[in-house]
Amino acid sequence: MHVLVVHNRYASAQPSGENKVVDQEVELLRAAGHRVGVFERRSDDIAARSLLSKAAVPLLVPWNPAVRTELAARLRTERPDIVHVHNVFPLLSPAVLAACADAGVPAVATLHNYTQVCPPGTLQRDGRPCTECVGAAAPLPAVRHGCYRGSRLATVPLAVSMSVNRRRWWSGVERFLCISAAQRDVLVRAGMPAERLVVKHNFVPDPDDRRSGAGEHLLHLGRLAEAKGVRLLMAAWDEIAASGGVGVPLVIAGAGPLEREVSAWAAGRDDVRHVGLLDAAESRKAVARSVAVVAPSTWLETFGLVVVEAMAAGVPAVAAGHGAFVELVEDGVTGLLHRPGEPGSLAACIRRIAAEPALGREMGQAARRRYEQGFSPAVGLERLVEEYRTAIAGRTESMGGSR
Fold this sequence. Notes:
By secondary structure, this protein is of the alpha/beta class. The chain has helices spanning 17-31, 51-60, 65-78, 95-103, 140-145, 152-172, 181-189, 230-242, 259-266, 280-288, 305-312, 325-328, 343-355, 357-374, 377-402; strands spanning 2-9, 35-42, 82-85, 107-111, 124-125, 128-129, 175-178, 197-199, 217-221, 250-253, 272-276, 290-295, 317-320, 335-338.
């Protein structure tokens, strides 16, 4: 099969699970003998643009005509069987869908977040769930609240794009690949076409590093942001420390807007280590040495890659009991779920998993079995190719019916 992957890469200064997923899928398909091309833009390149060019970037968010022309020409030359769209913000835009229509090539799109129904894609505002824009013809509340980066001006291009391109997305994509059932449910309730929304979980490569003992630390690995529950974790850990601790330190790895706050909080403590941004190999080792991976996100995670990476290493997770986590973590079997947003509940789960090493080992083994059954590369490849074939067949059928 000949596949063209379309993706706007996120800035490299902060970890991106989405970039990782795209790279791993490309590698997986190529290793299986499929021909895979990549059409991409990089947010890192914006910094090198002229002042005038930088100022024009928001205008390209709803529609980039140059991308339409360039991609359509490439599609006509290469004639791939399918185009797989991932992120189009900020430099690609939904013009990629027009290019696919121009060249007559079917498209599938992986939905990594909620940008179809929420301009910043988080369904969260001020640290709390928010659905004010869901189902609205124009997402004006997002602009009013400045939901993207706390700025009304920065939110406007996203809101405009969501409003004017809604129908283009819904008609121009053969199959939307949701990365969890929880995400699909939200999008169906928001009015997206249910018949085009399917669940295809992300896969995780089988790691060389797996847990062999009880673990050396508890680990929070990911972007240091409010939505990831970082402040919630700090509050829970302070509660744990005040009652004597759990005998192992908390390791916080990652970068993000709360990095200075985390670093200041961890400074001078022997029960917390802030280790900054780890590379892929260091991350795998840190996971494999964990008592548990802690994922206390306050937003409704669409997947939760770090939880599945922990499963692959035979490590249980302590995660918030909402969003995709409830389908990834079987409470009491492959990990523990805490009540979302409650530091006391999170602290209780951390205490339990640290105090019962035998239970932790059992959960880790069960988590590894769950990984093998649902999130391995073999399973990921099978599901991906199946959806490509369904999309191609659907386009062929609709074209046949229109003649």
